[in-house]
Every structure is written in C-alpha cells, then in structure tokens.
Write a structure and sequence with these properties.
Blueprint lengths: L3 H9 L1 H7 L1 H5 L8 H36 L2 H17 L7 H24 L2 H11 L5 H11 L4 H24 L6 H7 L2 H26 L1
Helix pairs in contact: 1-9, 2-9, 2-10, 4-7, 4-8, 4-9, 5-11, 6-7, 8-9
Length: 219
Amino acid sequence: MELWTGFTLGLLGSFHCIGMCGPIALSIPGQNSSKPAMLFRGVLYNSGRILTYAFLGFALGMLGMGATIAGYQNVLSVVLGALIVAFAVVPRIKLPGILTNAYQNFQSKISSTIATLFKKRSDSSSFLIGLLNGFLPCGFVVTALAVALVTETAMHSSIYMALFGLGTLPVMLFLNMAPGFISPKMRSKLRPFSTYFAIIIGLLLIWRGIMIDGGMMGH
C-alpha cells in the first residue's frame, strides 16, 4: 500500500471519527474557552492521538516485517482483508471469551484514566487524553493498522499510521472549534460510512495478497 493512502483513509474515515470520537473531542478540558485556547487544546489532543497511532504502527510493522522475511506476507494480507470484510459485514461476531474479557478490561482501564484526566482541566491533560484515546479499541483504527501491518518496513508502518491520524485532523479540529455545526443526530448518521470504507480496504488487501502470490508464482 502506498503511504499516501494512509492520509486518504484517515480523511475519509473522519466520518467515523465524528460519530465515535466526537464526544471526547468536544469535551477536551481547559479553563479558558477562547477560540485560540480551544484550538491549542485541540492540537494537543490530536497530537497525542497521532503519536499513539504512529507507535502502534511501528510495533505492528515489526510483526509485518517478520511475515515478509518468512515469505508469508501474501497470506497475511489476504487473511487480514478477509477479517476486515467479515467484521464490517457482520459486526456482531463474538471473539473468544478470554479475548473479550481482555478487551473489556483494557478498555475499562483506559476509560477510567481518561475520566481522571478530564477532572484536572489542564492543557497537558488534553495531550494525555489524546495519547490514551489512541489506544482505545476502534474498528476503523484497527482497519488502518491492518493495512500498516503489510507495508514494507516498521518505519513505513509508523509513517502510514501518522498520515492516517493527520488525515482525521482537519475534521476533528473543525468539530472542536465549531461543535454546533454537526448535531449528535447527524454524527450518528455518519457512522455507517466507516463500514463501507472498511469493506473497500479489506477487498484491497485481499487483492494485494493475491497479486503478490501471483507475482511469486510467476517467478
């Protein structure tokens, strides 16, 4: 996958961000409610979020490099693509009990820490909230990470996720500066768009894996 698709995926996925992350972005703590102060806190929050995405991209990129070296990247691409499509089409697929419990415990701890940071109402807490929010389980971020996993190197994966985060930045900052522009009802209606994007990405990953396999067989 070309790196520029990371930014495009993030920009298109902003519909999902409005629906899912909008409430947090609209509640970024701070004492000063002036527009410059709100913009500054918005930049801090989103910087933390993007930094976490870049870190996760690098960590998964290391695994992807291992698959590439072992010669299984084509299989990895097809499997990830199929899983993305499956979870997008049938979102109620249940994970094994042990994974579900781990998921819920992790989400609970992150959410609890974010709630504590909200009470501090400092600018620095805005950055930390963004940093932690990047770790919260999110279907669309997972989709981007799946793509990052099959890039060339760990650094490529990290850059891909950073570009993904930057793609979501314009809409997230706009939402923070003009919270009344998009109503909660409209945000809810925009959520399904992320499903369509996920299916497209999943199909692209499957196609990529098949093409890699075909190229290998050709040699």
